[in-house]
Amino acid sequence: MKFGGTSVGTPQRMQEVANLITPEQGQQNFVVLSAMSGTTNSLVEISDYLYRKNPEGANTIINQLERKYAQHVEELYSTEEWKQKTHEFLRESFNYLRTFTKMMFTSFEEKVVLAQGEIMSTNMVTNYLLEQGKSAVLLSALDMIRTDKNAEPDFNYIREKTLAKLKENPDVDIYITQGFICRNAYGEIDNLLRGGSDYTACLIGAAIQSEEIQIWTDIDGMHNNDPRIVEHTEPVRQLYFEEAAELAYFGAKILHPTCIQPAKFAGVPVRLLNTMDPSAPGTIINNVMQHGSIKAVAAKDGITCIQIQSSRMLQAHGFLRKVFEIFEQYKTSIDMVCTSEVGVSLTIDNTGHLVDIVDELKKYGTVTVEQDMVIVCVVGDLVSSNIGFETRAAQALNDIPVRMISYGGSNYNISFLVSKDYKTRTLQALSKSLF
User: Fold this and answer.
1) Global confidence as pTM
2) For residue range 86-99, what is the model confidence (pLDDT) as tens digits?
3) What sections of 132-181 are H helices per DSSP?
4) How many Cβ atoms sit within 10 Å of the Cβ of residue 351?
5) Is-contact 218 6, C-beta < 8 A?
6) Helix (H) or strand (E) holding 280
7) Which residue from 271, 279, 261 is spatially nearest to 216, judged by alpha carbons?
8) What are the φ and ψ backbone dihedral angles of 378, each rounded to 5 degrees?
9) Phi, psi of 185 (to 5 degrees)
10) What percent of the chain has pLDDT over 70?
11) Which residue of 31, 74, 396, 418 could cross-link 433, Cys pair, CB 3.0 to 4.6 Å?
12) Terminal-residue alpha carbon distance, the chain
């Protein structure tokens, strides 16, 4: 079970989480917690002051954060014993943060500072569970989660260390650990970057072959469209792993696309649930493909379209390789691609090297760049044998100028590229037509 920052953002929320994670008789729960909401932002601010050699600014934020936590302790615990224990732990944590104002500050120290948010929230919740007389133990993610030299999770290490920790504490009802933080291949404190705590939960759930991985957030599952733009959206009750990955990649913010890979490979279902409404069924993501259904629509903003036209491409081999090598050289990934006999159009979402990429591409043809575009994708069972599905999606957009269409690259997705000015109309038109 994973709970994000808002789920542990106040003493009351922590108490609600404590009730949710208490297992039924004979069951055990493994719980991954994020830092309390707002804490990571404060730690980033502290790091910014330390990079700028401004210890006074850093100490001001540390003091503000410490006062906030001290108030939380008074509200969270009912006995003096546990108030004192937690105050003492937090005092040491904040004094440790103050030691960074007296030393050289690099990205290594910043990662140590950023890790403190999760370390504090997990200690507070574990202490609360123990005060309530529940059977709980805190396991440090720094002893279980490690990345390799490519900054990818070292799955064999994670499985071995996590199972060893469970063996050391066999009769506990609730295991608690930190999300997001880990050690790297050199043993230094680091973090998982993409998807943070969700990734931790899926890695651990896959490693211990749990019955289910539950990601608890503040909305009821994954919706069939963006509820901020389209009225009357509904939660999607079931998604195939590939469908969920497409939706996550193309804009459904509830989940990071890489997070569910470990669960997919281990065959462990992932359930998205709502902390504010625990009885809601949420969304289950598993290896079951529901044939003949379109599940959802998602949109990805900030897209740049690049078109390369060249008569030299006619009947020529090697042209596309040269084009793609330029993007590889600048470590820029491509989302959509459409080709014709004399041109290729493609989209990117990272414009950090756009000027250099365009300069290189001009060696091979005439280059046109369009910015402020949006990819809108329709996700579901879109194999070519399902006649008419792609037509329904395309017909919904008959009065919207579509710049590119990508279909057939996957069996689960058809994508449309439109100007951001047409994003709202596109999402609404697809919802009306498909759902």
Assistant:
1) 0.87
2) 999 999 999 999 99
3) 155-168
4) 14
5) yes
6) none
7) 271
8) -105, 125
9) -60, -20
10) 97
11) 396
12) 31
